Fold each of these.
Amino acid sequence: MTWLVTGGAGYIGAHIVRALSSAGLAPVVIDDLSSGHEAFVPSGVPFVEGTILDRALVERTLRDHDVEGVIHVAGYKYAGVSVQRPLHTYQQNVEATRIVLEAMQAADVANLVFSSSAAVYGTPDVPLVTEDLPKRPASPYGESKLIGEWLIRDQAIALDGALRHTSLRYFNVVGSGDPVVYDTSPHNLFPIVFEKLLAGQTPRINGDDYDTPDGTNVRDYVHVADIAAAHVVAAQRLAAGEPVEAAYNLGSQNGLSVRQIMDAMARVTGIDFTPEIGPRRPGDPDRIVATGDLAARDLDWKNRYTVDEMVRTGWEARRAASLV
């Protein structure tokens, strides 16, 4: 029996594929390579190139590989850009999730781990985000993830328990668990800073007048290997028929400021720089940090990496890619 990873050629998906293999669960990958890279898929792992908007392809993949569960990671993950591309975002995240659910029902696949997002909470006004906090997404991306959770919930109700599922919500995923795989997003803080440093340019902080100890906004940064491990435990619990919550936050509990990240970047890379200070980005809250208590209880969730280790693993993977 195998687990299908949609988006398994992407940064997060490729780490989940490796974690599945390490746990003795056979993965198969489907990815359209719109943002993923076939080179991220380990040798020997079956790879199907194609879009999950193709229902026949998804169903055929499920049947051909005797899939027992799906880890649904594929999606359009750019919250800021989703404001300019709402229709594309809904197609990639909502319609695609509906199609995956439809194909799963047709192929009698009963287990689903959904890669959701803490963006479903919007801009919370509490120090720590918990799973029961009201959902007020502030972008089409966040809305699409919340709708995805609703679709899964409603399908499970319609199938009277024949679909077992959980959704994992997280914020800023960083670092690398394999020197072959690194974050290639043009919108995430770590790759933006890495590219600036590699080009001999100075990274920038967007605003230093927030209501935080050092004036820069505080976010949840979690290591990609920890994220991958939690997906695997969730899959194992579903397959074993063990109880799971409908959703879990994979949060850091404490958070890190952008200036703390910049200090770690300089410290770990050995490149001494003083970040430029730019204006605030509209709508950026002072602090968003989630608790991970439920996930710690059920999914062996913990933060195993310091900020320096997060930076070091990401930097080493990005530099290794430059040498290829």
Note: The mean pLDDT is 95.
Amino acid sequence: MRVLVAEDEKTLAGYIAEGLRESAMSVDLAHDGTTALEKLGIGCYDVVVLDRDLPGTHGDEICRHLVSAGGRTRVLMLTAMSDVRERIAGLRLGADDYLGKPFDFDELVARLDALARRPREAAPPVLRKADVVLDSAHRRVSRGGRYLSLTNKEFAVLAELLAAAGAVVSAEELLRSVWDENADPFTNAVRMTMHRLRSKLGEPGIIETLPGVGYRVVDPSC
């Protein structure tokens, strides 16, 4: 999942970003509304964690812009204004969810997971292919009943491939969704992560490489 954290309190923004990255999410930061709009215009984000009272362009205007543009990015408003009337106002602007400060970090992660699943009806919390099972809610992967120890990147790459349900996912798409805006498009990060992931998944292989095109999951029994 790729997330934009638009928060002007830099310490809080860093804390959120670090925690989300530990939860296998790709995170970019914006500390003002103008920068947030620029990043939303060029990046492909599943969710934006949006401080309502941003400097530059106000969070309300960013929310209105996203709603009118009709994009796929979901909006979770994160703000100190947690009064019921403020929450209602934020939701009426088109926000998909609203979380007041201070907040429980586990709740933030759970809400982001739920929001990211909304536009992907084919990607339920538990994804399966052959004897491989990925449980996004509990961050667990097993094969043949044996739990595997995956890094955050390995977990996220496998989740993207399983969610594609057999469709081909290019290396560029994986860079956009699993890494962040600083990822070098010429890096071999995807290839190296795929190599380690295949090794951990073991045989028979379920990840197929289509040279020059991308990767897809297959059922080795077929």
Note: Residues 2-117 form a domain with the Rossmann fold fold (CATH 3.40.50.2300).
Amino acid sequence: MTWLVTGGAGYIGAHVVRAFAEQGIDVVVLDDLSSGHAGFVPEGVPFVRGNILDREIVRSTLGQHAVTGVVHVAGFKYAGVSVQRPLHTYAQNVTGTLVLLEAMAELDIDRMVFSSSAAVYGTPDTDLVTEETPKSPESPYGESKLIGEWLLRDQEVAAGLRHTSLRYFNVIGSGYPDVYDTSPHNLLPLVFDALLAGRTPRINGADYPTPDGTCVRDYIHVGDLALSHVAAARRLDAGDDIEPVYNLGSGEGVSVGEIMAAVRDVTGIDFTPEVADRRPGDPARIVASGELAARDLDWRMRHTLVEMVDSAWRARLEAKSPRP
């Protein structure tokens, strides 16, 4: 039993890889290092550098490593940027998923855990999102993730694919001192980089229809998310019944303003963030129930907000510069 993690050299993917390895499950990584880092892949885990759009590399990786299931994390994940780069977003997230599914079908690999997103919901007309909440994505990124879910659904009918899609919310924190979020677009990396450079952090929008005017999100710890990927893979390996989609949500909303307060507490640096314009494609509020995932995938919030921010800050300070 060997699982391929596409995007396994990235921040989230590397946590997933380590969770598999720590539970004794063989794993291999495919990543083109467009946003990942070879140094995030733990020693002893096979690493193939390549893009999921490259059919030959995908097929050879699956075959040479006797892969039996795939955790598909690779993709272009920036909702705001996707509004300016829709064709690139669809190529990476839709065509890339199609190429991967084609190669899996050719080699009779019938298990996939798919990295989806809360972006499929857009701005939901409900205080608490469930898996049945209507989907209305507001960015090419969200649309591409929803199409990915459709591809898996249709491949189940056509070829017997066994699958589940995990809809991520806002992932923060770190489980290891040498792995941290290096995204140039995510909130905490931007805030930390500003503080370390002696600049004032900037947030996007303070005029949303929320209690403090900043976006309200569902912040979850990356290590908790990784453990639920392993749980999903184990259920697929065992042939257990599994839902086609799960929300990995906390059930509680936290505003960007509250995140800023936690950053001040953790870092000991007093600041008042500058307020920039809203980012295109950002909904005002999105908070989800994680009840189904708690029932089936050992999903639970094991960290407080301060603990999540603290782990991210410590990893940012302590980690060596990632190798390209």
Note: Residues 320-324 have pLDDT under 50 and may be disordered.
